[in-house]
Design goal:
Layout: H1 3-20, H2 24-30, H3 36-57, H4 59-67, H5 81-86, H6 93-97, E1 117-120, E2 130-133, H7 135-156, H8 170-180
Antiparallel strand pairs: 1-2
Helix pairs in contact: 3-4, 7-8
Length: 184
């Protein structure tokens, strides 16, 4: 399959699934046994598309890759997609987060004007780090947590009581979990 076909397919699939993801029943279908190979393939395709979009539109990531001599497009010549991903350089706080500003790490080098939440880590590494979460990321997190909690409730046959026991970044993480459990 061509890259263009895969990227268009992933775009259309994301739009279609996005129409139905607010319903937990949709996730039951998407998590049914037997469709794991499709989910894994679609996940790899989505990661490929996301990598190439970030390499093109996120200034810090483009520079990060350039410094390491990595092109902004994955070459699959004689390689699987997994092999191509394995060749990408790893990022961490020192090599990426601390080196570039928050806007430089944002799409098109600009923070979105609406729907942004800034969380700050606990600073256990010595200095607190700010993490910017846009509306799309917060909605995706909300959906994942709601699916997980609803599956737990089904297993228990009753509504679970949730304790926030995160040891680091407890305030920010606790607030994200709490707001994810509320209705949109």
């Amino acid at each position: 399959m061509s890259k263009r076909f895969i990227f268009v397919f992933v775009f259309l699939m994301d739009r279609f699934v996005g129409l139905f993801t607010p319903r937990v029943s949709t996730h039951r279908i998407l998590l049914m046994p037997g469709i794991e190979p499709f989910r894994w393939a679609a996940g790899r395709w989505r990661a490929w598309r996301t990598f190439e979009m970030a390499a093109k539109r996120v200034p810090a990531y483009r520079d990060f890759l350039s410094e390491r001599g990595v092109p902004g497009k994955l070459s699959l010549r004689g390689k699987t997609l997994a092999d191509a991903f394995a060749a990408l350089p790893e990022m961490d706080k020192d090599s990426y987060i601390k080196r570039w500003t928050i806007p430089a790490r944002s799409v098109d080098g600009v923070l979105p004007r609406h729907g942004v939440v800034v969380d700050e880590s606990s600073g256990s590494s010595g200095v607190p780090t700010s993490w910017v979460r846009g509306l799309d990321e917060r909605l995706a997190t909300r959906q994942l947590l709601q699916v997980g909690f609803s599956r737990t409730a089904e297993t228990l046959k009753k509504q679970p009581f949730v304790l926030n026991c995160f040891s680091l970044g407890a305030w920010a993480t606790g607030m994200n979990v709490s707001t994810s459990r509320t209705s949109p």
